[in-house]
Amino acid sequence: MHNALKRVLVTGGAGFIGSHLVDRLMTQNCEVTVLDNLSSGSLNNTKRWLYNQNFTFVEGDLKNPLSKEKATQHADLVFHFAANPEVRVGETDPRIHFEENLIATFNLLEAVRKKRAARTIVFASTSTVYGEATVLPTPEDYGPSIPISTYGASKQGAESLMSAYAYTFDLRVLILRFANIVGPRATIGVILDFIRKLRENSSRLEILGDGTQKKSYLYIDDCIDAIFFAANRFLEGNEKVDIYNVGSADQVAVKGIAQVVAEEMGITPPKLVFTGGVDGGRGWKGDVKNMHLSIEKLLRTGWKPRYGSEEAVRASVKKLLKLQ
Q1: Distance (Å, rounded) from C-alpha 55 to C-alpha 314?
Q2: pLDDT-based confidence at residue 65 (cuts at 50, 70, 90)
Q3: Are residues 75 and 222 in the same domain?
Q4: 203 in the same domain as 116
Q5: Is the pTM of this model over 0.90?
Q6: Looking at the domain assignment, is residue 232 inside a domain?
Q7: 126 and 151 together in one domain
Q8: Which domain holds residue 103?
Q9: Same structural domain, 232 and 193
Q10: CATH number for the domain including 188?
């Protein structure tokens, strides 16, 4: 592990991906500070570390000047994973994505610039910045990127801010564009939605959209491995800004996910009822129907996922059912 990973700040470190990243950092004897406002994360996700001398938890919000300055002052590297991840909220209240994803990122960058402590940032971005890509699998240099959701737009804007600050203020930025990450501690997503619906009615399952949605899914353990492989490669180089897609090598359709969930719950295949969706069968406004990231660049770091998309979904269902 690179020396720069020894003293780190994780924004959103009590959330789904962030807390799993914290677990890995702590088991490798890093000094970890977590900044989280607990709006979607949970202190339970980090409770095993609360009395560890290498762990500091700061309950705060990146929109609050005192919180961001306190959290950034002792870090050598920042993992910026704080965000509102719910794509659908953009249709009803786009202000949330603007403030929680874009303004919060600007405030973090300002704190880093003024403190002149951490000079390297690893940023959790998203496949949704590509919008409806016409090239599948979609490589990192695909363009133009035309997001179709306010979530994707806010992340693309944050990427641009990161790049500008890197070149203007002598920072280094690694951008990770995640596919659908699944596993324990997730609080949103199709798997949890299907589990909830089938517990209410095991004979009928409503599916948003027309059922043709097809996307890549990556299990959380593979995701954390990928973050470390990409970060180590980046830290060993000298690029100002670099980008990696983080996903699986294949896809699974929403109907396939429904089948896996029913099987793991021991339920006779339910009747699938499709809502028909919006804008040509999307589940909701801003839903990308067909997402498949190229991971060739990430594979060249030596990383390799243990699970394909369907296997990742199945492993996630097993774990979530066991924990509930």
Answers
A1: 33
A2: low
A3: yes
A4: no
A5: yes
A6: yes
A7: yes
A8: 3-181+218-246
A9: no
A10: 3.90.25.10
Query: In which residue are the tokens 């269902």 written?
Result: 317
Residues with Cβ within 8 Å of residue 319, at least 6 apart in sequence: 183, 184
Q: How many independent structural domains does the chain possess?
A: 2
Query: pLDDT grade, residue 86 (50/70/90)?
Result: confident
Q: Which of 100, 111, 36, 104 is nearest to 72 (CA)?
A: 111
* 36 within a domain of the structure (yes/no): yes
Residue 116 reports pLDDT greater than 90: no
Under 8 Å between Cβ of 207 and 272: yes
Whether 295 is covered by a domain: the verdict is no
Query: In the 3-class helix/strand/coil scheme, how is the chain assigned residue by residue?
Result: CCHHHCEEEEECCCCHHHHHHHHHHHHCCCEEEEEECCCCCCHHHHHHHCCCCCEEEEECCCCCHHHHHHHHCCCCEEEECCCCCCCCHHHHCHHHHHHHHHHHHHHHHHHHHHHCCCCEEEEEEEHHHHECCCCCCECCCCCCCECCCHHHHHHHHHHHHHHHHHHHHCCEEEEEEECEEECCCCCCCHHHHHHHHHHHCCCEEEECCCCCCEECEEEHHHHHHHHHHHHHHHHHCCCCEEEEEECCCCCEEHHHHHHHHHHHCCCCCCEEEECCCECCCECCCCCCCECCECCHHHHCCCCCCCCCHHHHHHHHHHHHHHHC
Residue 176: strand pairing partners: 124, 244
61 located within any domain: yes
pLDDT exceeds cutoff 80 at 123:
yes
Same domain? For 120 and 135 the reply is: yes
